[in-house]
Design goal:
492 residues
Length: 492
């Protein structure tokens, strides 16, 4: 099974090229379906639905003239880049790394597993830092505590990747997915506005769930199974957990106070009834409220200030050039993201202009209505579909850019909100990250394991992570249904 998945996945093109192919398919499909009377009403304007041919001379020239604006105005691009400017400084100066090391260093041995998973979840705020920092630290910590290091790597991997959409701190993933969801939902409702934290309450609550589940699986399932697996790595080459130096501890304390002060100032300025953060109706969380429209900029500031503070005190920032270098480094790491977003933006634009998205949404909604399936079953199907696709397409943004334009409008027609659809997608995507060899960091985790157990391969790591994946997928989905059924808000 795993070999088949790996073979099929390797045959897929790069996600960027995949969206080039999809763009060509949209053009051809719009040409083939343009002359058909679908007997459907466009919910956006009440007029009969017409598929627009994107291969006419007028459509092609319009497409070419809008290539640059389409990319420049594509919502996920700007919001992610702005957030990463601040996060990049915090990571480059060492603030985030020091914070993670400090949290783990003061942890009681009895609480080592849940604290490791909690730190792994928190590391999402630093993009992919958790993969290269927290996961190897998991092995080091467990080995130092006399426990099996692979159990530590498994627990950290489960938190970083299996719980990728469970977080009590905002991350760059939130505006990325929300931006794609908004673009997809606007196929039906052009005025739709999605808050970057539209799943925040659910993901924050999910972080507690993932910590609890990961703790139980690690201590009661995974580690007992590893008792017969000998640690045969070269002890001299094993990574070491270095304690924080005095300068690092002092810098971390001051930077933490700066971040808390920033958060306190934000809270205090939102309290007055006439606060400029409030919207026209006086609310803080309404779509047009300045607070909600400023979330990405606030993420940038709340990571930038403590990052710079830490760097100045710890000595990693000596001049303003070091701050700019951190931002530059962050943007360099986003090169591939920009490439794939360019092609996704062109595909989404053509898909929307052709009306194929609306057609698929209405036809799909009719089919689902005919089946008369409960909404809960539809949501479960969404989770499972995402999990299956994740075994072949590793990029979270690529998958959602592929699925969102079809599923979001279709489920909107059935009364399922874009926020709920996105939450279901996040569960399916996160839960299966840890068992797909096509996940970009999967080979790196195998290397981490080989430091302790030389014979570790893809099959070893997959078998190690299967209990986490199966449990997360089933229990997390049930949690979403209960959460939704209770009428609790998913986010802002």
């Amino acid at each position: 099974m795993l070999a088949t998945i790996e073979r099929l996945g390797n045959r897929l093109p790069d996600p960027a090229i995949l969206f080039v192919w999809l763009l060509l398919i949209v053009w051809v499909a719009s040409w083939a379906l343009a002359g058909i009377d679908w007997n459907l009403i466009d919910p956006r304007d009440g007029a009969p639905l017409v598929v627009r041919n994107q291969l006419t001379g007028e459509a092609l020239t319009t497409f070419l003239s809008n290539v640059v604006p389409t990319f420049a105005h594509f919502h996920p691009v700007g919001v992610v880049l702005v957030a990463m400017l601040g996060i990049g400084v915090a990571e480059r100066t060492g603030f985030i790394h020091a914070g993670l090391r400090g949290m783990l260093a003061i942890t009681s041995p009895r609480l080592l597993t849940p604290m490791l998973i909690l730190v792994a979840i928190a590391s999402h705020s630093a993009a992919d830092a958790g993969y290269v920092l927290v996961i190897p630290l998991g092995g080091v910590l467990f080995y130092a505590a006399g426990r099996h290091p692979l159990a530590g790597i498994g627990a950290a991997f489960a938190g970083v990747s299996g719980g990728y959409s469970a977080n009590f701190l905002p991350s760059s993933l939130d505006p990325l997915l929300a931006g794609l969801t908004q673009a997809a939902g606007q196929l039906i409702d052009p005025d739709l506005a999605i808050n970057p934290l539209n799943n925040y309450f659910f993901t924050a609550a999910s972080s507690l769930l993932i910590v609890g589940l990961g703790w139980w699986i690690t201590d009661r399932v995974v580690e007992p199974r590893l008792r017969g697996t000998a640690v045969d790595g070269d002890i001299q080459d094993l990574p070491k957990l270095t304690p924080l130096a005095d300068a690092e501890q002092r810098a971390l304390r001051v930077a933490g106070l700066v971040m808390l002060a920033g958060l306190a100032a934000l809270v205090l300025t939102t309290l007055p009834g006439g606060s400029p953060w409030r919207g026209p109706d006086g609310g803080l969380t309404e779509a047009g409220a300045p607070l909600m429209r400023s979330l990405v900029a606030l993420i940038f500031i709340l990571f930038l200030l403590p990052g710079v503070t830490y760097g100045v005190i710890a000595g990693t920032v000596k001049t303003h050039r070091d701050v700019i270098a951190g931002m530059t480094w962050a943007m360099q790491s986003m090169g591939y993201y920009l490439v794939i977003m360019f092609f996704i933006a062109q595909f989404v634009a053509a898909f929307g202009n052709s009306n194929l998205g609306v057609l698929l949404a209405l036809k799909g909604a009719q089919a689902l209505q005919a089946l008369a399936l409960p909404a809960a079953i539809t949501v479960v199907g969404m989770v499972l579909l995402t999990g299956l696709l994740n075994l072949f397409v590793g990029s979270a943004s690529a998958k959602w850019a592929l699925m969102g334009p079809v599923l979001v409008p279709m489920l909107m027609q059935l009364g399922i909100s874009p926020d709920l659809t996105q939450a279901a997608y996040r569960i399916g995507d996160s839960s299966t990250n840890i068992i797909t060899p096509l996940m970009p960091y999967f080979p790196l985790i195998v290397v981490f394991c080989q430091r302790y157990v030389r014979g570790t391969g893809i099959g070893t790591l997959t078998a190690l992570m299967l209990p986490y994946a199966a449990t997360f997928l089933s229990v997390w989905t049930l949690f979403l249904l209960l959460y939704w059924g209770a009428g609790l808000p998913l986010g802002f």
